[in-house]
Design goal:
This protein is α+β, with helices and mostly antiparallel strands. The protein has 5 helices and 4 strands, in the order βαααββαβα. The protein has a 4-stranded antiparallel β-sheet with strand order 1-2-3-4, sandwiched between helices.
């Protein structure tokens, strides 16, 4: 069983640790110093950015985050998808990470995606998922 709660400022130290771990750095390219986390995620916590971020719990322990957004709110990503032949102008996007490497491969990430909001409930046309590790 997994749970979701909104990210708060109290989670920034935990998120900083997760973002700085080598397994997460493979997939999340963003800078991961505490100040970088504050700069990027504080507007999301305050509702000033269109991306919503949730801490995911498993068995009463925080294990990761999932964030959702409209692809149209991120023109560079919208352009990449358009160049690949996809019209994502009405589509949502998600990103997630597992901060605890001991739970990787146990279906938690699958459950996070499965149990997050159904994009069809909001009139979106599709959900595009494309893993892209750093080079």
């Amino acid at each position: 069983m997994i749970s979701f709660r909104r990210l708060t400022e109290c989670d920034f130290d935990m998120l900083t640790t997760w973002l700085g771990s080598p397994p997460v750095q493979t997939w999340w390219r963003s800078p991961h110093a505490r100040s970088d986390v504050e700069e990027k995620y504080d507007p999301r916590v305050r509702g000033e950015a269109p991306t919503e971020v949730f801490v995911v719990g498993h068995r009463h322990t925080d294990v990761g985050i999932i964030q959702r957004y409209r692809i149209a709110d991120h023109p560079p990503w919208l352009e990449i998808l358009a160049d690949a032949g996809f019209d994502a102008s009405r589509s949502p996007g998600i990103d997630y990470l597992l901060g605890d490497p001991t739970i990787v491969g146990r279906g938690i990430g699958t459950a996070m995606v499965r149990d997050s909001d159904d994009p069809s409930d909001n009139g979106e046309t599709a959900l595009y998922l494309r893993p892209r590790p750093t080079q």
